[in-house]
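Build the 3D complex.
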Amino acid sequence: MKRIPVSMPDLMGTEEKYVVEALRSSWVSATGKYVDRFEEEFAKICGTRAAISVCNGTAALHLAMLALGVKPGDEVIVPSLTYIATANAVRYVGAEPVFADVDPATWCIDPARAGACITSRTKGIIAVHLYGHPADMDALNSLAGIHGLWVVEDAAEAHMAEYRGRKVGGLATMATFSFYGNKIFTSGEGGAITLNSPELEIWSRRLRGQGVDPARRYFFPVTGYNFRLTNLACAILCAQLERRESILERRREICAAYREGLAEVKGIGFQPAAPWAVVAPWLFCITVTEDKYGMNRDDLIRELDAQGIETRPFFIPLHTLPPFVEQSRKRHENLPHTDRLGATGINLPTYNRLADEEIESVIEVIRKAGRG
Ligand SMILES: *Cc1c(COP(=O)(O)O)cnc(C)c1O
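Done.
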């Protein structure tokens, strides 16, 4: 039986042509025309002054923390329902992630709950646009404004999502993206920072490239990093961006088909969409309410797996994981919406070449496994 994976990149456009071109040009490191072209185009797409390519989304978050000067003893407010990289980046600079619950209307960090987490040590907030849904940026920015904090968007899962008619990436102090193989646009490994501040751009570029003084070769006034992305990876990204509308469109069709096919199944819930949101079609999400559906989330995942369908449980809430659980307990963190979603959510296969019959078969298995 042919298995259906949860995700698969679509690299069938000009990706091959551009990579071969980059290879033949011998510009295989982090200088070259595709790096420049990607950074220019991605900034244009996000409506920002600049985009800075980096080697992955985790490095993009780490670089943002460094450029913003986050230090040991500082606190950064993050959602607990996210990929671990969001909180790890805070730890890399010696600071402490403080977890705020999500809003059930967006599944993203709840601005009111974030506000309740602010202490004299708080330096900023990382708002994750979870599963493609933008966080409530106006509320977060105004909260940050009152308390003198920065806001970073973690837009790894939300390429081209929109908040009140504006693209994510330009809605806060800085934004970070991932182009890992399962993200909407991919270069295998890759990432980017987008921003509008010229000072933060200079610092981010400098720290990305070992901290070198731009006016004096081999003079390093600060400790920097090598977080660069190769011209080969940027060649793939340029091809992906050329086809961005068609990639998004097919993924939207898939999400609409799941929603229609599962609408009547008792106990299956969907990701909410705020009226001001254009949700990026990353991995389609369902939630399983055991007493209505007749089976719990983990059993449904096993049933789908037995039928050759790979899925993903939602992220395990970070405040329950070994690196963070003790600190979280000490702060008496109570995150009921995060806990519920983390225990009931499933990501279904979502990728461009998923066939209509395959979508149908996923829907059929979910329909049959439940009470009807
Ligand atoms: C994928 C992801 C990242 C990390 O990106 P990598 O490119 O894998 O390092 C960070 N944050 C979120 C929310 C993600 O989904």
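The radius of gyration is 21 Å.
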